[in-house]
Amino acid sequence: MRIRKYFRGSGRVLAFVFIASVIWLLFDMAALRISINDVNTQLLKEVIVKQREAVKQQATKRTNVANRGGFKQVQKVDLDLETEVKISDEGDTGNDDVIRKRTRVNPAVKDIKFNEHIQSKETGQLRLWDGSKALAKYFEREIGKSEAAKPQASTSTTAPRKVAAKVTVRKKNDNIDQRVKQAEATVPVSEARKNASENAPRKVPVELPNLTKAPPSGVEEKRHLTQEPKIKLEHSVQKANESVVKKAYKTQNKVANNVQPEKQHAPSKEKAEAVHTVKPKKNNLESNVIVEGKQKTATNQSDPNGVKHQAHAMEKPVVPQHVVNKPNDTVTRKPGVHKVMLLDVTQKPRDPAAVGQFGLAAVVPRDKEGEMRSRWNEGHFNVYLSEQIPLDRAIPDTRPQACSENLVHDDLPTTSVIFCFVDEVWSTLLRSVHSVLNRSPPHLLKEIILVDDFSTKEYLKDNLDVYMSQFPKVRIVRLKERQGLIRARLAGAAVATGEVLTFLDSHIECNVGWLEPLLERVYMDRRKVACPVIEVISDKDMSYVLVDNFQRGIFKWPLVFGWSTLSEEVIKRDKMKDSDPIRCPVMAGGLFSIDRKYFYELGTYDPGLEVWGGENMEISFKIWMCGGEIEIIPCSRVGHIFRSENPYKFPKDRQRTVERNLARVAEVWLDEYKDLFYGHGYHHLLDKGAVDIGNLTEQIWLREKLQCKSFRWYLENVYPDMNAPLVRAEGLIFNLGTRKCLTLEKGVISFDVCDLNKQSQHFNHTWMRNLQQRGSCIGIQGPREGVAIQPCDNASPRLRWLHKSLILSSSLVEHFIAEHLAQRKCLAADPYGKGLHLNECDPASQFQKWHFTNYYTP
């Protein structure tokens, strides 16, 4: 009754129905929302699982790529990672002891952090840090703890504590596919390097590529895959440097115990037991090259006791390096720095009383003076004293004081040091090699390549092979016929594997800290070519002599190399210190470091140059005019034996060979200034019938391809203090007899009142010694030797007139003397002003005396 009474009336019924409908709708919407959430959650889980699997696969790929490429890090992955490397000084028990990567990724995986290979400071082992912990936290936060706890979620979204990634280490042998087994936690670096070192052959047969073209990319990649892992440390650098010296000294002293010091110099007559010859494919110069191989250990045949030597101590890498991202357009690297390593390793404790020790002058005993004189021509220096001096003698540190405090980068490029020699004196060649081995950081010295340019001395054959076999980093390349310095360097560069090529002469001594400053400049700009300060080793007493600071290489006409000291004005203006690099217009040519790839981009040396001469001019002009720079680095010092004459034999006439080379350089690089070269005594080279300078098409095309600047730009921007006028004299030509000026109108010569505004009175006396107005020249014509106007031809001697020349007597300097005539005849004005005649020279005749308005040379 109460219920019926309650629902009495239609209004109450409708109200109840409405309220019930609303309540039912709310329950329905709640159920629908729960269903939608379940679907969204499942979809989100599936998306995240896929992303996680993709990330894990990408990380595994990066790990394998890094191991195959010497542990180099990949610049970018699918998540658009951008890395910044940090190293903590803490222990190896937490996040602070690893190399961490701060990442910037897409919003879907915002907080994921990936960690690459690390090295524990305490264990020296390589670890693959597990970044899955951060990944799991992200999943839990996005999906929810309740969903993460479900069975299907735990199997698909929960990350393990360790990521099992394969770390593959390639051995340094021909079987590249042989790999180390999978390692999950750690891979010992020292053991991997040991295996690589033990399996590495001492010498690898090389098929030389075209010497003027860069090696193919496939060769580059293969070499890259066989490099040892590099590890970069950005903390405790100085301590690591000290450990290098200590370990190197310790190992070297072990080797020294098996060496007879007093017998090191003596070349052996026995044949090497472990030398094999590799005959490369014939291709131009390639058919004339032999690469000698060495075993890891060999008997030192120059030791009468036949003691076997172990591998040189410098071969073992002591300081590991972490590999950082290489520079490109989007990533900037922030490597560590350290002071220059002052290595000076010796095979035995030095004898302070040894002849020439510490770079002091040596004295020839009176009873040995005859032997000294008789042996002088072997190298055109004191060969006798050179053989008395220790192969690893100490020399004074001549660097400016600031150099010892200078910092260089930890990840400098490696270098191949190339020595080219022919019939070099045994002791000087060995001393050159020892100075590089003993004073170069081992991790930067990739190899030493000795290029034998068909030497005839017996001691430079099997004996040299045996002696150098004790040094694993030394390779010998032998040319089958005499090629000369230029092509020998190209042969050495063709087989080099270092990132930087360092060319040295074979009678030098590198000073402490010589290498890193050179590599630092190339590291900072790959287009910089770095040269050491070349100091003097006396050819008479073998003393090491310091040279003046602020010197640079220059040239004078006709392309003659020389040294010049910067003026005090320039030093003060630029606020230069004695340790600052010096811009060098022309390198000396024998000693420099250049990026290997850049060397090939420049086209190397002109392969048309023969034997020796002019190559330093050619490559210097090419570097400067095609976008590079040459610098002398005062913190790098190398002593060099300067000799009074060139001891090398030339297959052809020496003078003609050098002149021909210089003519090629002038034709390709000097533009209109080539007249200055020919005009300074090389007119005869213009006679193509007498001198063939070869085809220049390829070199001219190369200059156009490289978009090189003009020689005028070079003079204005690189060598502005060079005096290089395009003509010897110009303006009006005034005749003292007629008191008028020479005039040329419509091909007719006459005299008129001097007027600077008349172009018909303007003449040039060119470097070809032509009296020229535009394209017309005054010359001698016909058997009667009449004076006439002819088209200009630089090769024609009948158009040349000596005037104001140093070869003339003082009484004839104002005359125009016909150059090609055996009997001297001079240009004379007609007394009546009707033309020119050729008469016998008369110092007193006023009609034979001429003056230009402007003279540019004495």
Write structural notes for this entry.
There is one protein chain. With 858 residues, this protein is of the alpha+beta class. The protein folds into 3 domains: 14-156, no CATH class; 237-326 and 333-641, Spore Coat Polysaccharide Biosynthesis Protein SpsA, Chain A, CATH 3.90.550.10; 727-855, Trefoil (Trefoil (Acidic Fibroblast Growth Factor, subunit A)). The chain has 21 helices and 35 strands. Helix 11 (426-439) links the parallel strand 12 (415-421) and strand 13 (445-452). The model is unreliable at 60-287 and 293-333 (pLDDT under 50).
Q: Roughly how much helix do the residues carry, as a percent range?
A: 25-40%
| Biggest β-sheet description | 8 strands, antiparallel
Cα distance spanning the termini: 142 Å
Q: Classify the beta-strand content into a percent band.
A: 15-25%
Rg over CA atoms, rounded to whole Å, is 38 Å
- State the low-pLDDT regions, or none: 60-287, 293-333
The CATH fourth-level homologous superfamily of the largest domain: Spore Coat Polysaccharide Biosynthesis Protein SpsA, Chain A
> Total strand count, please?
35
Mean pLDDT across the residues is: 74
Domain tally: 3
Q: Give the name of the CATH architecture of the largest domain.
A: Alpha-Beta Complex
Strand-pairing-aware structural class: alpha+beta
The number of helices is: 21
Shape: flat
CATH topology of the largest domain: Spore Coat Polysaccharide Biosynthesis Protein SpsA, Chain A
Q: Any idea of the CATH class of the largest domain?
A: Alpha Beta
